[in-house]
Write a structure and sequence with these properties.
With 453 residues, the chain is an all-alpha fold. The protein has 16 helices and no strands.
Length: 453
């Protein structure tokens, strides 16, 4: 007789997955921090230009995250079922999408970087700096399209530590190379903002090489581009049905969030520079929240794949309690970081004023992001429900938040901080619908199939 699943089992498994993911998110945030800290010594224009140019990486991350999440939805449940061949087919399907998209972004960064920058700012200096950055960072886009999907597959089968180790290698190397190329250390050219892009590209190439090494040593999940040619109509249909709404959700959210930068970018370099610091601090504040969402999604997917639906329903409730606690911790971390950030930042007086208010707003904003991310990207997707999040975020971001931001900034011409405050209401507006959907239990589905050829 199989032993009953207990609270201790859940918390033991969730923290086993959570710790490597939090470390991975921490290292990712550290890279962003290193960029801002080092560029602080180059100048405010360098910080602003890289912040705006990096919005394309943010969009691309959302694309890959959506594809990886879609793959994880299927792979976590098939892993619970014990079907590794299905996982290999899903990996190939995800690669077809991710590699194609990365080629498009890389091509645009090489051949039309100025046009890309003009979408975010009309400042000629920022356009020039950002265009140089985009050309050099284009290589990282190509590598990222492969590594992000492969690492998502590894995480979905519980090999989170391996995924974290590869990310740790890339992030650590990125930080070291940042210093070398930005300031011209050890005989390297002094490249300023462009040095950030070169460091990113080199570290991504090394990470991709690390993925191939791990694949060669792995007994189960291999990184084989031959999987691109594996076909299964049922799994492809499932991937499209589950992954494309997740992908659309993340793209809609990511592009909308980039529209926030467009709005702020046209309100002056002071607002852009202040927001650059805020993004870094907020990233640290949401590390634990987003880690819980990722770990919870993987664990719930495996449990559902084992057809233990009542255990999954109960564990989702425990996950929500952890999320609320993590959101409160995130807000306190941002509050605690404020004195250090305000002391360190070398900005104009107006930018410093913006920075202080933006940080205060984010002390509570992380709670909204924590709850929505855990439910939409973790719980709902684990149960095969990616459609609800897509509809919810499209309405919230594109019918409410983005139009409101443009209207407040360019029609009403409200003060910068009022515009920023209104933009930061987006997470709380969708709470009633998200929580209602969670309580309905409609998200809980076993989506695996039997007898796949």
């Amino acid at each position: 007789m199989k032993r009953k699943w207990t609270n201790d089992d859940f918390y033991r498994q969730i923290f086993k997955l959570l710790l490597p993911i939090v470390l991975q998110n921490l290292l990712s945030a550290a890279v962003s921090s290193a960029d801002v800290i080092m560029l602080n010594y180059v100048g405010q224009s360098a910080i602003s230009a890289v912040s705006l140019a990096s919005q394309y990486a943010s969009i691309l991350f959302m694309v890959f995250y959506g594809l990886g999440t879609g793959a994880t939805i299927l792979c976590a449940q098939y892993f619970g079922k014990g079907d590794m061949h299905a996982i290999e087919i899903v990996e190939g399907i995800a690669f077809r999408f991710s590699i194609s998209i990365s080629v498009v972004f890389a091509g645009a960064a090489v051949f039309a970087p100025e046009a890309m920058m003009k979408l975010f700012t009309s400042d000629a200096e920022l356009i020039s700096i950002g265009a140089s950055y985009l050309r050099l960072v284009s290589v990282s886009y190509l590598c990222w399209g492969i590594t992000e999907v492969y690492l998502a597959i590894l995480r979905s089968v519980g090999r989170v530590a391996v995924s974290t180790a590869l990310n740790a290698l890339a992030f650590t190397l990125n930080i070291l190379l940042n210093g070398i190329f930005i300031f011209g250390l050890f005989g390297a050219p002094k490249m300023g903002a462009s040095g950030v892009a070169l460091a990113t590209s080199v570290s991504r190439v090394v990470e991709l090489a690390g993925c191939f090494i791990v694949s060669a040593l792995s007994r189960d999940v291999k990184l084989k581009l031959s999987t691109l040619f594996l076909e299964n109509k049922l799994l492809f249909s499932d991937f499209v049905r589950l992954s494309l709404p997740a992908l659309g959700n993340d793209i809609a959210w990511g592009v909308a969030f980039s529209m926030y930068s467009v709005i702020i970018g046209h309100l002056g370099s002071d607002a852009v520079a202040a927001n650059s610091f805020v993004i870094v601090v907020r990233n640290f504040g949401t590390i634990l929240c987003f880690g819980i969402a990722s770990a919870g999604g993987i664990l719930l997917g495996k449990i559902i794949g084992e057809n233990r639906l009542e255990d999954a329903r109960s564990d989702a409730g425990k996950l929500m309690k952890l999320t609320v606690i993590s959101g409160a911790i995130g807000g306190l971390l941002i509050l605690a970081a404020m004195p250090f950030v305000l002391t360190y930042a070398d900005l104009t007086d107006k930018a410093m004023h913006y920075l202080k208010i933006m940080l205060l707003i984010n002390t509570y904003y992380v709670m909204g992001a924590a709850v929505n991310t855990t439910l939409i990207a973790g719980v709902f997707r684990a149960g095969g429900d990616s459609r609800f999040g897509f509809i919810c975020d499209v309405i919230d971001m594109w019918v409410y938040a983005v139009p409101l931001g443009f209207f407040a900034a360019f029609v009403l011409k409200l003060p910068v901080m009022w515009v920023y405050f209104l933009l930061c209401t987006d997470e709380f507006v969708k709470w009633p619908w998200v929580i209602k959907h969670y309580r309905s239990g409609k998200w809980l589905n076993n989506i695996t199939r039997d007898n796949l050829e």
